[in-house]
Amino acid sequence: MSSLPGWKRIPIGAVITEPGSSLKYKTGDWRVMRPIIDQEKCVRCRTCWVFCPDGAIMEVKKPYRTKAGREYDVSYEINYDYCKGCGICAHECPVKAITMVEEVK
Amino acid sequence: MAKLLKAQRMALSTNYAVAYAVKMVDVDVIAAYPITPQTHVVEKLAEFIANGELNAEMIHVESEHSALSAVIGAAAIGARTFTATSAQGLEFMHEITHIASGMRLPIVMSVATRALSAPISIWCDYSDIMNVRDASWIIYFTSRAQETFDTIIQAYKVAENEKVLLPVMVAYDGFITSHTYEPVDLPDEEEVRKFVPKKVTWYTLNPKKPVTMGPVGPPDWYYEFKYQQVVAFENSLPVIKQVNDEFAKWFGRKYDVIELYMMDDAEIALVSYGSVVGTIRETIDELRKEGIKVGLLNLRLFRPFPVEDIKKYLSKVPIVGILDRAISYGAPYGGPAYTDIASVFYHERERPMLVNFIIGIGQRTILPDDIKFIAKKLKEYLERKHVPHKPIFVGVRE
Amino acid sequence: MKSYFKSLKDLPIEEYFVSGHRLCAGCLAGMIMRHLTKVAGPNTIIVNATGCLEVATTIYPYTAWRIPWIHVAFENAASVASGIEAAIKILKKKGVIREEERINVIAVAGDGGTYDIGFQALSGMLERGHKVMYVLYDNEAYMNTGIQRSGGTPLYAWTTTTPVGKVWKGEMRPKKPIAEIVAAHKIPYVATANPAYVIDMVNKFKRGLEVEGPAFIHVIQPCVAGWRIDSARSVEIARLAVLTGMWINYEIDHGEFKVTTRVPKRKPVKEYLRLQGRFRHLTDKDIEEIQEFVNKEVERINKLVGEEVIGPVVE
């Protein structure tokens, strides 16, 4: 039979007591295309982070210095565990710093 | 601040008695929509709030569906809640009754039972309450103002019990019971509040401890939650009896899940619920004078069905007439209570003969002569050792 | 218009609506909820009606919500929210909840749960004046059950219950003017918003939470599956809705009407329509009809405001 917990062990009334438990469900395998952020081109405008419907773009406190000498104190990184490959980030990026490539395993 | 009432005797209709009981338990949120014959319950509560005698929020909802929905929202925050309805209103909120119990919220609702449309009827029968018997609510049937007042108070204690956490309906005859004035002994309001102290024993929406309530239950999970409700019902019967006992100790009035009248030596038992039990009791006195040994079993608790009590008091009686005030269309042999009692006895070695009588549909008057007719018919069946295999519809014109 | 947020940098970093939900790839309902919950913060209770958002974000035992959240049924988000709001009020009066504690109550529903089945409950809540913000995410059909038409489906849109065939050519009626109907209840704040215009949208969320009575925010939400669009272009399509005048961002703050996104040069509607598969069957005549409809509406709005806030079509 199933290894899922039985009626004695789960909270009554179908109440989910762990906030944000969906983080355990990795939607990354939905992807057919994957976005790649070019840190050199990215101007840290936040647009991709704002529009991602899945919160799959993380704003991380990773300072970065481009080859041209521009300095940033944050970087944006795709969380490939959840990214569904919708392509909004690549389409909306004002400097075309994100490209969609085929997802190959 | 509202002044608490002192113990006193008042002449109250059952509808008003319900309102007093709800006031005395210090309800927090009331949301109800008017429908005959429930209207007075909510009007009285509005009066209490308007006069500063009850500190509660009344939401003037635009329908019964919204009434029960609003009350679910309030209960989900940990508030003590109340709603009331009848017939069409109960049907309109029907969808939500299953949700209230599925979400395990201790809501209390009074139902002034009324016949369901069509044709439209504002008068009493139990078709409305029978239509929600599978909604996983605890259901009490009361027949007197004092009893209803007392049962509403007990309902909160049962509903909010950690082992139960199921919503409770207290049903009584529309018009016949709801509108009749009887003397009611009101206890000290402070004592009532001590009897049902407020303790939030259920999950609530609280920013400090966020939960998600009412998610999707896929096939891998739904069954387990429904089984939890089955277990809650199993837990509820001993809790109901325990609360009956505690109430008796505190307020001196003892109730049980069934009420007996002259059952000790009865050869013929009449089982029923609602105000008709009063008529039955009086008629039994007359029948006894004629030498017919009739007794009454008043069914006060319908869900969970009091199986052991029914078995205990009916198994040795030769013949039992079950008087249902609702029709279960297309059912195999009879009305709702009959079907439940037949189930109880199916597996028993000792079982009475069972006959179903359908009475009082759409508030068709039930006279002592009707009860005599029923008792005499049962006597006849007992002598012939044969019962009809379909219900007898008492009072319908050919 | 109140300007609480001035740029994308002002948006809080904390996520209260997290990844792992099962909304379609490119579904802006997810993005709208991320920002709604950022604006509202953790002292918020969400009441969600049945629909795409509810079903995709709370499949037991997974929940994408990190704040208190409740779903009861399809048509009663507004009634449940009313009950919660009333309970908070009385529990504060009885000292069970601290008076100073600020708890936002937000009802979130789709066009199904608002225009149609939820309309009664919504009207009741507005009429009673509960301090609840109602956010309508409008994807213009009953998407969760498979793209059936709703009162919010626009003229000529293909849906499964208004399909395109020999006799029918999609939805026969224009959108029910839900925001105007809500505004007729004379509540303190009504606004229309668009996820492509994020700053405008979040400022409206914030304002809605501030006012002393009911607030209603109508947000258009392009649907990848139902509108038959390229998921990558969902924001672009939302933007085109405004740029063509098919969607007008406005607010009615205590009765004062204001268009919050000016469009000096309007694009022709065909630029919006041709990107959507649900309008693929439209003839040039149909498109012209829709253009006329929009022109009239734009004229009406400009007259109402007393200024040309939405300009003429420029090819």
Descriptive overview:
The complex is a heterotrimer of chains A (105), B (398) and C (315). Chain A has 105 residues and is mainly beta. In chain A, 10% of the residues lie in helices and 21% in strands. Chain A has helices at 47-51, 88-92; strands at 33-37, 57-60, 64-65, 71-72, 75-78, 98-102. A two-stranded antiparallel ribbon of chain A has the order 1-6. A two-stranded antiparallel ribbon of chain A has the order 2-5. The two termini of chain A are 32 Å apart. The mean pLDDT of chain A is 96. Chain B is α/β, with parallel strands linked by helices and 398 residues long. The longest helix of chain B is centred in the middle third of the chain and has 30 residues, at 222-251. Chain B has a seven-stranded mixed β-sheet with strand order 3-2-4-5-7-6-13, sandwiched between helices. Chain B has helices spanning 14-24, 39-50, 64-76, 87-92, 94-102, 127-130, 145-159, 189-195, 222-251, 276-289, 307-314, 336-346, 368-384; strands at 8-13, 29-31, 57-59, 81-85, 108-113, 138-142, 168-173, 181-186, 212-213, 258-261, 268-272, 294-299, 301-303, 319-324, 353-358, 392-393. Chain B has two domains: 8-251, Rossmann fold; 258-393, Rossmann fold. Chain C has a single domain (8-305), classed as Rossmann fold, CATH 3.40.50.970. Helices cover 35% and strands 12% of the residues of chain C. Chain C has helices spanning 28-40, 52-57, 77-93, 112-116, 119-128, 178-183, 198-210, 224-227, 234-243, 270-273, 284-305, and strands at 44-48, 69-70, 104-110, 133-138, 189-193, 215-220, 250-253, 256-259. In chain C, strands 2-1-3-4-6-5-7-8 form an eight-stranded mixed β-sheet, with helices on both faces. In chain C, helix 7 (198-210) links the parallel strand 5 (189-193) and strand 6 (215-220). In chain C, helix 1 packs across helix 7 (198-210) and helix 3 (77-93) packs parallel to helix 5 (119-128). Chain C is globular. Chains in contact: A-B, A-C, B-C. Chain B binds chain C through residues 28-29, 31, 55-57, 59-63, 65-67, 69-79, 81, 95-96, 99, 103, 205-207, 210-218, 221, and chain C through 42-45, 47, 54-55, 58-61, 63, 65-73, 75-76, 78-84, 86-91, 93-94, 96, 103, 120-121, 123-124, 127-128.
